[in-house]
Design goal:
The protein is an alpha+beta fold. It has one domain: Alpha-Beta Plaits. The protein contains four helices and eight strands. The chain has helices at about 10-20, 60-70, 115-125, 130-135; strands at about 1-5, 25-30, 35, 45-50, 50-55, 100, 105, 140-145. β6 and β7 (about 105) form a beta hairpin. The radius of gyration is 14 Å and the shape is globular. The two termini are about 20 Å apart.
């Protein structure tokens, strides 16, 4: 998850709370917050985090809930990689492999992004290997205190 418009820290913090309130869903963990430069985009600095949930929702239904949460936070999809009040990406759904027009899992670019890898390493260190971190070492990111 990430935000780079408005109060990005508050947006990410509120998004974590919103995840915990989704139907048939439990928030089981969240990473630290990270500050990162926009990746392949323009705009202000992002605040990012990764959350881990347990849910009875299907992956497509979970995606719809995430998009509704983005919309409630004022998300406008004006163009690809535009600055945003909130961005919630579904990275994994267990071990599921899904390819549809609406959803691809695992997320197709998760390994290319330091703002995913560093927070993910806190929650699922077995998914992040050193070569992945080396590949994104040029991306500016820092853990927030």
């Amino acid at each position: 998850m990430g935000a780079n418009l408005g109060d990005a820290v508050a947006a990410v913090t509120q998004a974590l709370q919103a995840l915990a309130q989704l139907p048939h869903t439990q928030l089981t963990g969240s990473s630290s917050l990270y500050r990162s430069d926009p990746w392949q985009a323009q705009g202000p600095i992002f605040v990012n985090a990764v959350a881990k949930i347990r849910t009875e929702l299907t992956a497509p239904d979970l995606l719809l809930e995430l998009q509704a949460t983005e919309l409630a936070a004022g998300r406008v999809r004006s163009h690809p990689n535009a600055p945003r009040t909130l961005d919630l990406d579904l990275l994994f759904y267990g071990d599921a492999k899904i390819v549809s027009p609406e959803l691809t899992l695992p997320h197709p670019r998760w390994m290319e992004r330091a703002f995913v890898l560093l927070p993910l390493q806190e929650l699922a260190p077995h998914k992040v290997i050193p070569v992945m971190l080396h590949a994104v070492a040029d991306q500016v990111i820092e853990k927030m205190a």
